[in-house]
Design goal:
The structure holds two protein chains of two kinds. Chain A is mainly beta. Helix content of chain A is about 0%, strand content about 50%. In chain A, strands 2, 5, 6, 10, 11 and 12 form a six-stranded mixed β-sheet that branches. Chain B contains no helices and eleven strands. Classes of the chains: A mainly beta, B mainly beta.
């Protein structure tokens, strides 16, 4: 079956540091890939997505590239802020009407210190 | 605000009881998904409904069931509750009518505590 593996946290960085959160996947088909973010006490928000190999998703300074050859979708940001502190989830799913549910990684807790 | 609403926000109940969680999808979305988030299992897909019909099942227990109504809102029913059912339950929606959606939009969740 499908699975997503991401680095476990917490990951602690100083403000303005470079961020990388690793994500690799195993899939039986050709999924879309997603990063979701969960702030304390809130639901999940879609951060970015990529629907096919070599696509780059980007939003709010975050980027991730769909690498089929390495089955990876690593999340990066050049300069993090305290407000980026949250839990980040990598996920895969299959597009189209009636798609199945998403398969999530276990989440990476990111802490940014001023 | 994702446009997905869930009620109640918190629910405390005893073992053996039955509860119903409610979800209203984003306006126009046909698919509703239910997920369970717990510390030990992480985020797990439970079940999906599409335009009133069950479309896919994940790791949903037999004690749990769901339905989607003609107005597209959905309910998740949890019965014979056990301590281990304590978790955050999220609803998500996608697939606008006439379109193809690649992403799901999540509600704020219902926190269930079983004592």
């Amino acid at each position: 079956g499908d699975s997503v593996t991401q680095m476990e946290g917490p990951v602690t960085l100083s403000e303005e540091a470079f961020l990388t959160i690793n994500c690799t996947y195993t899939a039986t088909g050709y999924p879309s890939l997603f990063w979701y973010v969960q702030y304390p006490g809130e639901g999940l928000q879609l951060l970015l997505k990529a629907t096919k190999a070599d696509d780059k998703g980007s939003n709010k300074g975050f980027e991730a590239t769909y690498r089929k050859e390495t089955t990876s979708f690593h999340l990066e940001k050049g300069s993090v802020q305290v407000s980026d502190s949250a839990v980040y989830f990598c996920a895969l799913g299959y597009s189209g009407g009636g798609a199945d549910g998403l398969t999530f990684g276990k989440g990476t807790h990111l802490i940014i210190q001023p | 605000d994702s446009g997905v609403t869930q009620t109640p926000k918190h629910l405390i109940t005893a073992t053996g009881q039955r509860v119903t969680l409610r979800c209203s999808p984003r306006s126009g979305d046909l698919s509703v998904y239910w997920y369970q988030q717990s510390l030990d299992q992480g985020l797990q897909f439970l079940i999906q409904y599409y335009n009133g019909e069950e479309r896919a099942k994940g790791n949903i227990l037999e004690r749990f069931s769901a339905q989607q109504f003609p107005d597209l809102h959905s309910e998740l029913n949890l019965s014979s509750l056990e301590l281990g059912d304590s978790a955050l339950y999220f609803c998500a929606s996608s697939t606008p009518r006439g379109g193809v959606s690649h992403e799901q939009y999540f509600g704020p969740g219902t926190r269930l505590t079983v004592t």
